[in-house]
Recover the amino acids of this structure.
């Protein structure tokens, strides 16, 4: 039997505690897969005073990253703290002291990936980050390794469990956004500060990481156009349902004329299709490759043990040497990969519009006239009488058109005297069809 | 740049041709993922005279496996012929002459896996077989690597594209089994001899392979109880639909009291659940792990390019050295893993029965009496009058009970004077629920 591998765990929050539990609780099983045993040598926490109920002796826990980075017996470090700092400095410290790094920190990879990958490569170390996108779904390995023979055409996914939990709860319970968010926070499903989850930032981080693997370009995540779910209300959900759709926060990256169109936004997805059936904290990813056709993955995108499952798989990959090969021998994590210019790249699609209009003659003619002048044609429409003469929602489903055309039309519509209040615009993703592979005999 | 890696392709049928096309057509892309170029050095075919339209010079094609096995410049061989012989002898010849082997041949792995794995390990070579189960879905990597930290609780899947194509066509078109099979054969979706596809053998091969990876035991595929789809008719489909179900050929392996219950059979799956929505040549696999919870994968399970996608991913894995690590450093393909004894291990489930009975008083009392004596209780029931006095189908949905109890009851029912003809019995798989992971903080 080989010597045990000693691992340092940085951060004993939800994920870090799960990783310690899994490494200790499933030790026999993990030993079989790694060919040697893996032990938690030390852990580092921010607050030493916090009570913990973990299978880890107290004298192995410290508040100083150097107890791990300077310990030469430790070869692998699991970096399981969130945010950019001190995570970035810790990663650099660990790499510079010879540790291979495994992390679940998507913000860190999305923001500092090129810098850290470059440093790791120069030092002959590896960084593994399966847990940084879609939690327990092995999507990083799928794209980076299993689909290596494919030119990827598109990625589409529900990548943020918190916002999916909120949207599907709103749908099931008919409650409004604020009430569901509050309940989710009380139940521990949403952070005290949920901004990055609900405004699309977290999904944009993950989409940037997956796109790097899939398309071989570095995507500055902040360039990805994104809209959050804060504006979604029961009225929008009811109109969507009437048309046969549900609302999900969807992240998309697709090749359009050799460039990349990317977006994170709430979107209408047809009832019965896989994304619409993705509920609660589940994540889902659909990928189209030129050889494999369409692949679909569904699983828990967050939570202690699903995320720990991905982190420990990466630790095993690092221990056996596969992570080093992925990192060093292949060009998929090249720090010098070109930055993608995604501004202005659009995918024509249908749009769902809700426009608060005055209930008076001529309104329809005015709105449809403006849409028409911008090249946006109407596929279907719902309008009810207000009865009171007050504003009523005019709900429109457009034919396929570029998002920018709709934006321009809505800007003009917003200035119209017949409109009272803000307009809503959601893309409609109903092109879920079996994508057949390219070449056949 | 590293030297190119020279690959030999054994078999230029549908999959072999796809592999050559992909290696040539996507060479730049593949080079980036492999860190070096991969070239098809030679191919071996059975029939040299057959015209081929491939990007491969004729003088590189021969009918003798030794042109590959004895060529020292070739380090990787893709073994893409079906059946057991000469595939087994070819695999041995290739391994003994220092080639790493990649194969899509599930019968070969299911039948001779332990022998071949053992030989490869002794010779310091690797065998990769992602394409042997579920075609383009990266399920071998998912179970063998990505879920390595999990104790797997169950695998359930649609693993045979041909039978799924036939069942979903029957459903959509209302045509009978024989007519759909004929049409599938004419369109090239089913083999001239479809026996292994429609009788459950092919799915059993794949289930045996996945179970080896998931549960660490070797399962003799022939021990897996299996029923094919030949007996499925429109009547069964109509009754299933009336109860809210569709019929699919489902392969299942699950831990029951520390042992494995395995089965391949047509089953009722609830409309709206992922397996019921798996149509045509698509495959689907659902896996439950103790840490990750339930993961679901969906993609094309057969066809030239999806299978080639998996084969080329394995070639890349072999070229960069990951396959060797998986094969040599981990215990997951241990030839000495214990053989699973699955006989007599049962998972209680609901059953759907169709019994042709005479339309006369007392029949219900007799049938329900027999079921009751065997501990099978009735959950719901459909019976129509015949009008003619002839036999009518009595359709019963049972509560959960062991399959063997239903079998014994049906044997007795078959001998009853009120029964005219054979009974049908399908398990009902309606326990699709979000499987939550084990430990939470």
């Amino acid at each position: 039997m080989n010597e045990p591998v000693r691992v340092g765990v940085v951060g004993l929050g939800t994920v870090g505690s799960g990783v310690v539990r899994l490494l200790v609780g499933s030790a026999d099983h993990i030993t079989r897969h790694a060919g040697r045993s893996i032990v938690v040598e030390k852990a580092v926490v921010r607050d030493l005073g916090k009570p913990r109920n973990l299978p880890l002796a107290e004298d192995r826990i410290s508040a100083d990253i150097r107890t791990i980075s300077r310990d030469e017996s430790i070869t692998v470090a699991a970096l399981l703290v969130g945010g950019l700092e001190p995570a970035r400095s810790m990663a650099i410290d660990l790499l510079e002291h010879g540790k291979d790094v495994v992390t679940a920190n998507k913000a860190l990879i999305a923001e500092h990936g090129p810098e850290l990958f470059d440093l790791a490569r120069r030092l002959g170390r590896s960084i593994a980050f399966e847990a940084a996108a879609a939690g327990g779904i092995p999507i990083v390995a799928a794209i980076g390794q299993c689909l290596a023979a494919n030119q990827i055409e598109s990625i589409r996914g529900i990548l943020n469990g918190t916002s999916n939990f909120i949207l599907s709860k709103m749908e099931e319970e008919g409650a409004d956004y604020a009430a569901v968010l509050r309940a989710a926070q009380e139940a521990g499903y949403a952070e005290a500060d949920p901004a990055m989850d609900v405004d699309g930032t977290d999904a944009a981080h993950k989409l940037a990481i997956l796109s790097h693997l899939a398309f071989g370009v570095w995507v500055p995540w902040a360039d990805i156009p994104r809209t959050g779910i804060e504006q979604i209300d029961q009225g929008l959900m009811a109109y969507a349902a009437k048309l046969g759709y549900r609302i999900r926060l969807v992240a998309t990256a697709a090749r359009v004329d050799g460039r990349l169109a990317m977006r994170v936004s709430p979107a209408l997805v047809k009832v019965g299709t896989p994304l619409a059936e993705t509920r609660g904290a589940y994540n889902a990813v659909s990928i189209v490759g030129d050889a494999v056709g369409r692949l679909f993955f569904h699983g828990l995108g967050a939570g202690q043990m699903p995320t720990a499952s991905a982190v420990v798989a990466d630790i095993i990959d690092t221990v056996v040497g596969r992570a080093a090969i992925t990192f060093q021998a292949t060009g998929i994590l090249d720090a010098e990969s070109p930055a993608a210019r995604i501004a202005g790249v659009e995918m024509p699609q249908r749009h769902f519009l809700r426009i608060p209009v005055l209930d008076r003659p001529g309104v329809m003619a005015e709105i449809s006239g403006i849409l028409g002048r911008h090249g946006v044609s109407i596929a279907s429409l719902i309008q009810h009488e207000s009865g009171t003469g007050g504003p009523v929602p005019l709900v429109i489903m457009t034919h396929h058109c570029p998002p920018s055309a709709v934006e321009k039309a809505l800007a003009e519509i917003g200035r119209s005297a017949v409109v009272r209040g803000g307009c809503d615009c959601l893309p409609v993703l109903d092109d879920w069809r079996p994508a057949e592979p390219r070449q056949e005999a």
Summary: Residues 432-441 of chain A have pLDDT under 50 and may be disordered.
